[in-house]
Write a structure and sequence with these properties.
It holds the Pfam family DUF1176. This is DUF1176 domain-containing protein. InterPro entries: DUF1176. It comes from Shinella zoogloeoides (Crabtreella saccharophila). The protein has one domain (about 20-210). The protein has 2 helices and 12 strands; from the N terminus they run ααββββββββββββ. The chain has helices spanning about 1-10, 25-35, and strands at about 60-70, 80-90, 95-105, 110, 115-120, 135-145, 145, 150, 155-165, 170-180, 180-190, 205-210. Strands 1, 2, 3, 4 and 7 form a 5-stranded antiparallel sheet that branches. A 5-stranded antiparallel sheet has the order 8-9-10-11-12, with no helix packed on it. A two-stranded antiparallel sheet has the order 5-6. Strand 10 and strand 11 (about 180-190) form a beta hairpin. The longest helix has 12 residues, at about 25-35. The radius of gyration is 21 Å and the shape is globular.
Length: about 210
């Protein structure tokens, strides 16, 4: 009888929804990135993506809040910003994230696009272990998805580090600094060579702000 009463009581109580614990605006940010990227942001098929643990491996969403004064209005009220880092999916050794920004001086959410260099280089051998010459930047492209990304709240910098294969011998990494309401590329490094056990054996800083 006690068991039956307990079961009836539990059934009568309102169900606690996981969504109730989610930060405000997260559903709208999810809808934006799903619409923008389609299957590239299927969130591994999860109906409700959890919030990432502070010291976890980023298999979830994160939300950051900060304020800033833009250069064009240094004496005005600070602009309040909310940055959503959204888990878009994962493979064997890389995790994809998209970023959405909400600013108090704008009504709508903004999908963050990241400038990345388009590189020209050629290998000196069939094993692709050496280059004929240093990579050259032949332009820039924009991407909305970053791999193995993170956000440093102190410096307000987004970083990424994409492994080109599982052992991580070839890779690229970037840094984007928040400035005047946007994330600006400040550094991009790449190691396009394969086979060396030292991941940084032949890396190239192909872009650095001010250089």
């Amino acid at each position: 009888m006690k068991i039956l009463l307990a079961a009836l009581l539990c059934a009568a109580l309102p169900a606690t929804s996981f969504a109730a614990d989610r930060p405000e605006g997260i559903e709208a940010a999810e809808t934006l990135v799903k619409t923008a990227f389609g299957t590239d942001c299927d969130m591994n098929g999860m109906e409700e993506v959890p919030m990432a643990e502070p010291d976890g491996e980023n298999y979830g969403h994160s939300v950051y809040r900060f304020s800033y004064k833009p250069d064009y209005n240094p004496d005005g009220e600070p602009v309040e910003a909310v940055l959503y880092q959204l888990f878009c999916g994962s493979g064997a050794y890389n995790i994809r994230h998209a970023f959405v920004l909400k600013k108090s001086d704008e009504e709508t959410l903004k999908l963050v696009a990241f400038a990345t260099p388009d590189l020209d280089y050629a290998y000196a051998d069939e094993e692709m272990s050496r280059l004929k010459a240093d990579p050259k930047v032949r332009g820039f492209r924009a991407t909305g998805l970053l791999v193995n990304a993170g956000f440093d709240e102190k410096t307000r910098t987004i970083t990424s580090h994409a492994a080109w294969r599982g052992i991580g011998d070839a890779w690229d990494s970037g840094e984007w600094l928040f400035r005047n309401g946007d994330f600006i590329l400040t550094r991009f490094e790449v190691d396009p060579t394969y086979g060396d056990p030292d991941p940084a054996a032949e890396s190239y800083v192909v872009y650095e702000a001010g250089k």
